[in-house]
Amino acid sequence: MPSQLVDRLDDVAGRGLRAVARYERDGITVTYERDDVSEKATVIDRIHDELVLQELGREYLERLFQVGRWHCTMHRFEEAVCIHYTHGEFSGTFVSVDSGTDVDLDRVAEICHEYTE
To answer: Which run of H or E residues covers position 9?
Structure first.
């Protein structure tokens, strides 16, 4: 399934797709990484920790905003937009796309939802 997910995300983001990873409470697996984006084990481990921590705040956010179930969070940086899509308790997808590219971020989130385990 991860290659199908990457193929679908590639259809939407094209050359703007930087990285795709799937995570669970105990670890994270990078399923795609563009050649010019270098993975560093310590960074990916810290990203995994942050994704799990964000999951701990799910119920609070749902009660605070009162607009339904929390699906994802997007962070925009100078070089990348990072999307954290949750699939359930401490599992989800992490997608990174280039900032400044014409990528339909809502469609990226929809595709992540379609590949919920």
So the answer is: helix 2-13
